[in-house]
Amino acid sequence: MDPAIITLCVLAVAAFLFVTELIPLAVTAMAACTVLGILGVLPAKQVYAGLSNSTVVLFGGMFVIGAAMFRTGLAEAIGVAVVKKAGTSEIRLMTAIMLVTIAMSSVSSNTGTVACLMPVVIGICQAAKVPASKELMPLAIAANVGGTITMIGTPPNVIVTGALATAGLPTFGFFEFAYIGIPLSVIIL
Questions:
Q1: Which of 35, 48, 97, 152 is least enclosed by beta carbons within 10 angstroms?
Q2: Quick one: CA dihedral 174, 72, 68, 136, positive or negative?
Q3: What is the pTM of this model?
Q4: For residue 62, what are the contacts with CB-CB under 8 A and spacing of at least 6?
């Protein structure tokens, strides 16, 4: 059978298992790679080669840091500080939330930042009697723009830097993205 057909069949089964969650998601992901190796579509050395990629390890680390911020109560403490400083004014609250989000997403994953701050922002909105919908969109926008400040703030920055390194070309420095990211953040704010 053609390797492309085999790959599409494995992909279809994996997609079905991801959607239905009949088995744990991690098992589904690992099983898809394993099946492609067993069926000869992938050479044995490439089946799990993607897991050793520095970009994958970096993303994993960023999500661990984001989860740690949430579990230790740091994200909640930030939320309480925002309400104390900004009060309950909708515009001041939005500005404060965006500033905190830009700062946090510049040094951690923008997706992880939104995941950590979303429950905090909802709680802030309930306490301030402000509709959460008016604060969640600025949260998402601020996380995206804040991620452009450093190399690790958003996945494309990391991927491009990794691709440049693999090609043997000069890579970006950690804060080189800030030349564009900081002015863009100020404009968006």
A1: 48
A2: negative
A3: 0.64
A4: 108, 109, 112, 152
pLDDT(58) > 80: no
What's the pLDDT score for residue 29? 86
Distance between CA 140 and CA 117 in Å, rounded?
A: 10
- Between CA 72 and CA 163 the distance in angstroms is 35
Q: How far apart are the first and last CA of the chain?
A: 55
Q: What number of helices (H) and strands (E) belong to the chain?
A: 9, 0
Contact 122, 158 (CB under 8 A): no
Whole-number Å distance between alpha carbons of 113 and 119 = 11
Choose among 114, 128, 124, 111: nearest CA to 76.
124
